[in-house]
Amino acid sequence: MTTPGPMPSRLHVALSIVVIVECLFLFSAGVACLTVTWDPCAMFSGLMIAPLPGFLGFAQYAATFQRRAVAARRASTCAFILGGFVGFVLVVTLMQSVAKSVFPPISFVLIFAAFTVPNLWNGFLTLRWHRQLTISRYRPEDSRFRLSLRELLGSTAVIAAFLALTLSFVRDQSPRFAVNVSPSEANLDLPVNAANVSLCHGFRGTIAYEFDTDEASFRAWVDAGIGSIESDGASVELSPIRGGYTINRFYCLTGQLSGPTSVTIDDGLYYDWSHEDRGVYAAFDRKTSRAYYYAHFH
Fold first, then answer.
1. 76: number of CA atoms within 13 Å, CB side?
2. By the 8 A CB rule, do 281 and 271 touch?
3. 3-state DSSP call for residue 145?
């Protein structure tokens, strides 16, 4: 008579499902980054993001639902690495924000915490699960990795979800460059009444775009936050332009478009923040009712 092996707790099963879903999300995002072939930094990010969640998702399933001790050891290690890294980024960001008397958006904190806590908690539970499997000397009836009909159906659903997520991420990417397109085609965070949008993405997080709008909408757009947590936390206010203000245009980021690489505005408003190798700039031209934006984060 075969002695039944140990069974994972309900909490462990629930956390495993959460971790597997999060891994699917991160893996899809990483693969989507690989489609941005014009930006080496985006492709490098994809290569950095995708492997660990992809491996963890498979290992976590084998550890929890197939009760494989070797997979449990690997899954716990990967969960600690993933949760620890995300948690480290969160803690460093919070420490920097506190030092500057600025708190990051609550959505940022919740998203990072949602990846940190389940992975670290699951890492501890999976490590304990590995010890239980090792002590019990439980071995699956078939030591080879095989899938049942239910698992094949589940795998099909996971693959479908992966494709849907990846395609969604790819569609959400704005084009490398575009001239006089609608806000929906530009896929940027713009004022509601923005029109005739032109944009270009450069390398290493550089972007420039411009659009038609009115002054009130431009003010509201800037006040809502147009840069990073760091730049928004600096509380830089819009200032009136006196004596002219020059800002880079999208033409400066590509050789495939021909046009003036900058514009000088004599009457309007400007936003100017920079620190070390990072900078966020915006300007509004009252004469033409056109807004300009340029940012670099490296």
1. 17
2. yes
3. coil
Measured CA to CA, the distance from residue 220 to residue 241 in angstroms comes to 18
Residue type, 71: A
The tokens describing 134, both together, are 């090792």
Range picked from 41-45, 192-196, 231-235 for highest mean pLDDT:
192-196
Q: Tell me: the pLDDT tens digits for 95-137?
A: 877 777 777 778 888 999 999 999 999 999 999 999 999 888 7
Query: What gap in Å lies between CA 74 and CA 222, rounded to an integer?
Result: 46
Tokens of 30: 């990483």
The distance in angstroms from the start CA to the end CA of the chain is: 65
CB contact set of 34 (below 8 Å; sequence gap of 6+) = 43, 46, 47, 50
The whole-number pLDDT of residue 126 equals: 96
Instruction: Return d(Cα 116, Cα 286) in angstroms, integer.
Output: 46
Closest by Cα among 33, 52, 189, 64 to 115: 52
Q: Is 158 exposed, middle or buried (0-12, 13-18, 19+ CB in 10 A)?
A: middle
The pLDDT assigned to 143 comes to 53
Contacts of 245 (CB under 8 A, 6+ apart): 264, 265, 268, 270, 283
Measured between alpha carbons, how far is 243 from 24 in angstroms, rounded to an integer? 53
Supply φ then ψ for residue 44, to 5 degrees.
-65, -40
How confident is the model over 265-290, as a mean pLDDT?
A: 92
And the tokens for 158?
């996971």
Q: Is the model's pTM score more than 0.90?
A: no
List, in sequence order, the alpha helices (H) in the chain: 10-33, 40-49, 51-64, 69-99, 106-136, 149-172, 183-186, 215-223, 229-233
